[in-house]
Amino acid sequence: MAPILEVRNLTKKFGKGKETVTAVDSVSFAIEPGETVCLVGESGCGKSTTGRMVAGLLEPTSGEVLFEGKNIKELDSAGFRRYRQSVQIIHQDPYASLNPTQTVRQILTAPLLRHNKVKNRAGAEARALELLEVVDLTPARDMIDKYPHQLSGGQRQRVAVARALTVEPKFIVADEAVSMVDVSIRVSILTMLARLKEQFHVTFLFITHDLALAKYFAWTGRITVMYLGRIVEDGPTQRLITDPRHPYTQALLSAVPEADPELAHRKRQIELREAEIPSLLNLPSGCTFHPRCPYFVPGECDQRVPPLEPLDVGGRVACPVRKHEHVPLLV
Amino acid sequence: MTKGKLDWQMDEHQNGKAPLSLQNVHVSYATRRGKVQAVRNVTLDLHAGESLALIGESGSGKTTLGLAIVRLLPETAQISPGVILYRRDGREVDILKLDRNEMREFRWRDCAMVFQAALNAFNPVLKIWAQAWDTAKAHGWHDKEAVRRRLVELLEFVQLDPKRVIDAYPHELSGGMRQRVLLALSLLLNPQVLILDEPTTALDIITQRTIIKLLRKLKEDQGFTMIFISHDLAIAAELADRVATMYAGRIVELGASEDIFYRPRHPYTLGLIRAVPTVTGGFEQLFSIPGSPPDLIDLPSGCKFHPRCAFATDRCKLEEPELEEVGPGHTAACWHWRAVEEELQRNPLHRGVLSVLQAISFNAEEEAVS
């Protein structure tokens, strides 16, 4: 199947001269229609910047974004508009992403009318009510006249999802979409998003720092791990979390606090050589993980940037030194 | 660092008497809409050397309870009725009866609170050394050399380079470093009890692990008595001996960490556990708790959880259950805890090491796209 979305050597630099920061460095991946891909990594790894470039909100410094096989830079204005509708983004903070002076009705009907998705105001209202049902904000008639401040965080995030759905997207970038929602409600939002996959054939790029959530949401999909602007490993979720090959992925998985006392005390403790993450302004040479990596090979890791190579167990890894080593995460 | 060098805790344990006892504590806030009942009827003994986690969603009262112990609540708050007994070196005081000066003495010297390491936990115009020196002076410790030695020792204990940190401003440090500095500062006056509010929230995963390791060291090597306040169940699983679940201002379940995570008896605790995935555990279907937390001004009748509870009956709407014993050292406030037990026999939690997945290899060609 042809990928619905592909990025090739995507790079984003911010600032100029000595102050240049390379937030995303030659990132390449492809996503098939219907697939769920999670982009994970710590703050500053470039996952959100990548998401924003994919959604067309940020122009890459170099590299390409291809949507349905077409380079988005080469689209005519009508084509670009279609792409912008087809790819929607859901932001982390539902307190900031909704206009506080508008009711849910206005928030949902404006894009429906603007993009001619409905014939008239009555049609827009009917569709808005339908969408509220889709995102489980019921009874929809009670919800539609509320202002954002009358809604809980979880309910606001549902409104943000409904708004994204007004333009019938094929691809949704969910950037930390449940991070600000209470634990007890998170799962229902994830379940709702998963249902959209089936119901509307939406493909997801799910961006999160939470590996447990990534595992749950993309159980049959893939996880891509980023570190300081580069992809260090990707692969089918079940392989990546049971048999991570990149020392950074291993460090991350072993560091995640577990909501299970037995697992919490049986986790392998991986000692990094350096606890602090390097500054993006002064990146280490070669593999950027080398100053912290417990398997550092002098003369090798600090000399050249390791290529992202296919793995026999599925996916890719950027570590020629450790790519064949299985490290159990529990002891 | 050995126990001898920082002469702490263990020897101060007073014949099994709990350093901190909360009895029937209520906290309310006065607002224009009415009285917010943030904490209701909390009775709890914190044993010497134990670490207790208070878990619950936002608005469950866990932070208010922590702030009540060090009496740092805003002026609109009222702690009444209630008794908070504190014991050290054979003496016993009711914290709620201390005057302003006695309270200042109590804070930090006896009980220190470590806040989430946002920048606003520090004075932004003071270097780390000045923050420590201010604190020491405020508590009548004027030996500059001794304070400096102590600070260096503590910074080393939290694995920071004192040379780099001591003359730095808070904004020059990373989030993880700030959290560690706060931890070091909280230990400055050798308190007996530490209260940590969301100690790892908003930190990156690897930094979280560094903090968890440090806290384990404080707990295991130094025998510190600690209260963790967190919305994150993982912090409880990683660090706590006992866990208290809070809902709508009350403790609804209290027990050993293993009991809470593997044998929960309150539907709310069960709901929280079923809502949270693990990473190295097996794949488990997760469920949300329906509805949202109650309005603390206008609480539901009876059991405050009944509108969201799958086990609720008419009785739950009328009568609020008290904590009752459901196992050794394990209490829950639910009329239907036996039904929860039966539910867990029918649908066990897939938890613990036995649930762990074996490594799964994928042949890239055969792999089916989701």
Supply the key terms:
heterodimer, A: 331 residues, alpha/beta, Rossmann fold, eight-stranded mixed β-sheet, four-stranded antiparallel β-sheet, B: 370 residues, 2 domains, five-stranded antiparallel β-sheet, 12 helices, 13 strands, 31% helix
List the helices and strands and how they pair.
The complex is a heterodimer of chains A (331) and B (370).
Chain A: E1 5-14, E2 21-31, E3 36-40, H1 47-54, E4 62-67, E5 70-71, H2 77-86, E6 87-90, H3 104-114, H4 121-134, H5 140-143, H6 153-165, E7 171-175, H7 183-200, E8 203-208, H8 211-217, E9 222-227, E10 230-236, H9 237-242, H10 247-255, H11 261-266, E11 309-310, E12 316-317
Chain B: E1 20-31, E2 34-46, E3 51-55, H1 62-69, E4 77-79, E5 83-88, E6 91-94, H2 100-109, E7 111-114, H3 128-138, H4 144-157, H5 162-165, H6 175-186, E8 193-197, H7 205-222, E9 225-230, H8 233-239, E10 242-247, E11 250-256, H9 257-262, H10 267-274, H11 314-318, E12 324-327, E13 330-332, H12 337-346
Helix pairs in contact in B: 3-4, 4-6
